[in-house]
Specification:
The chain is mostly helical and 246 residues long. The protein has one domain (21-58, 77-244). Helix content is 69%, strand content 3%. The radius of gyration is 21 Å and the shape is globular.
Length: 246
């Protein structure tokens, strides 16, 4: 006699009465909390110096052992990385955000434009506060291939590019109709975020843990802002705006 198979459902966990959008809020919120916990663990390791050996090994592995001022790889790599890292810089991100805001205003999607502005500016404030709080010096293990002025942890380029590109990617996903287009929008947003962060390590202006920390906070902050937007979508009128240009 075979034992009856257990049928797992959301009701077994007390979630059976939740609607689909409420489940989405729950899981995204839990994910954001997990990311924040991971960031705090990483930050603790950075403060205690536990990550220094890892950071040093990665930075040195990316340079010519006979001449640390030169990257390993083809001669054109450095110029390409300088161009790519600018995608996460304040000038380019400001231009991208302003261009998107202009488009949204022309489409009379005023509340969506306000959401983009709020996410972008709040991310800037969070980045400045975290850099001031940790005050980690920039790497001195290898020569910098890009001029920098602020402190190191977390990486502002990694964090702000994650916030901006993932937020814009999420907006495009909601406009797109088919699944392939949605995946494309998300994939491009993630690719830009990864490329910008990796370029900071290659150029020697950030430790790998700076970039990882920036990615974590950027993704968590974008998720939190998305939750807020979803929660107040009906009362803010964002849902009605979607139908205006449909």
């Amino acid at each position: 006699m075979t034992r009856p198979q257990r049928r797992w459902s959301l009701s077994r966990f007390g979630l059976g009465n939740l609607k689909r959008h409420e489940l989405t809020w729950l899981f995204v919120g839990l994910g954001a909390c997990v990311l924040l916990l991971v960031f705090l663990t990483l930050a603790s390791g950075v403060i205690e110096g536990d990550t220094q050996a890892f950071d040093t090994k990665i930075l040195q592995a990316l340079r010519d052992p006979h001449d640390p001022s030169k990257l390993i790889g083809p001669p054109w790599l450095e110029g390409s990385l300088v161009d790519l890292t600018a995608l996460g810089g304040p000038t380019v991100l400001t231009l991208v955000v302003l261009a998107v805001i202009g488009f949204l205003l022309l489409q009379t999607r005023y509340r969506t434009a306000l959401f983009v502005v709020a996410t972008w500016l709040s991310g800037e404030l969070v980045n400045s506060a975290l850099k001031h709080a940790f005050n980690r010096p920039r790497p001195t293990i290898v020569p910098h291939l890009r001029e920098v002025f602020s402190t190191s942890f977390p990486s502002g380029h990694a964090m702000e590019s994650a916030i901006v590109y993932l937020t814009l990617g999420a907006i495009l996903m909601r406009v797109a109709e088919d699944r392939l287009t949605k995946v494309y929008c998300l994939g491009i947003a993630v690719l830009l975020t990864v490329v910008v962060g990796a370029s900071r390590v290659y150029l020697g202006v950030h430790y790998p843990t700076d970039v990882i920390g920036g990615w974590i906070i950027g993704f968590a902050w974008a998720s939190i802002c998305w939750l807020v937007e979803e929660r107040f979508e009906a009362t803010a009128g964002i849902a009605e705006e979607k139908t205006k240009t449909a």
